[in-house]
Give the backbone structure.
Amino acid sequence: KAKARGRNQHVFFDRKMNEEAERKAIIEQELLQAITENQLAMHFQPVIDLHRNRITHAEALIRWNHPEKGLIMPDDFIPIAEESGLIIPLGGWVIDAVYNQLAEWRGQLNEPLQICLNVSPIQIVHTNLEHQLQAAIDRSEPTDGNVIIEITENVMIEGPERIKEKLDTMKQLGMSFLIDDFGTGFSSMRFLKKMPFDGLKIDRGFVSHVDSDNDKAVLVKAMIEMAHNLNLKVIAEGVERQEELEFLRFHDCDYVQGYLFGRPVSAHEFLELLRKQ
Ligand code: C2E
Ligand code: MG
Ligand code: MG
Ligand code: MG
């Protein structure tokens, strides 16, 4: 009887795995189409400089407008794109889209805008990112802003020396780097110091209720102090409540981003936001 149950469970798991594999295969197939058929779009979320009380940066976040399924969020397709290698053409599309946007906004911005672009560790390791960036820069010749690369700590898994070399080369092109989702991944303090990072983004998990959760408060204060001692700027992600903002301001955080200030919006809406400030 136990054996029969075991066998049934196997059947159950096999079926589940097949469904999962099939779902992924469909998304992969459709994602390839999405790239060629123009179903992707970048949205922009404001980042506020707390010293100047102004929007100085925008994080570019990808959106997929599926013809039948509607809007699909990146957490539902970026991991699949990474697994399948599709992140390489997809990431290339994102780079072009962001630089094209800067070119389109040329002359329309009252002050320079920095655009934060998310890059997968796979793009750093397996593509010639510096060439892609240089080509995009040459094509769009941005004058009213710059692009900053966001990478998660997990990039370090690929071997810190190799990553450092790649980042240093891109730094020569004038690129800046932020560590995304700081505090959630794998990174050694020693290499953190050696890498050419310009700042870190404290993960939303630490920011949420930092004003009332003592453990989070201790960690966030320590992160800000450590970052400043290493000459890194600090951006807090996922700020949703006034109390969180006050805590962050009091503890000398440099930039904030979150629903309290604005959700990611289309390029058109973002430009309106900038004009209103
Ligand atoms: P991320 O880079 O950490 O981006 C921040 C995410 O937090 C975004 O989700 C943003 O909409 C969300 N967020 C911002 N403020 C708040 C807040 O106050 N509350 C809450 N609950 N959420 C907030 P989104 O756009 O769904 O993106 C999810 C992740 O997908 C990103 O996390 C990033 O890892 C990845 N991603 C997005 N666009 C790209 C892209 O163009 N390329 C790559 N490689 N990854 C991307
Ligand atoms: Mg990010
Ligand atoms: Mg993040
Ligand atoms: Mg994230």
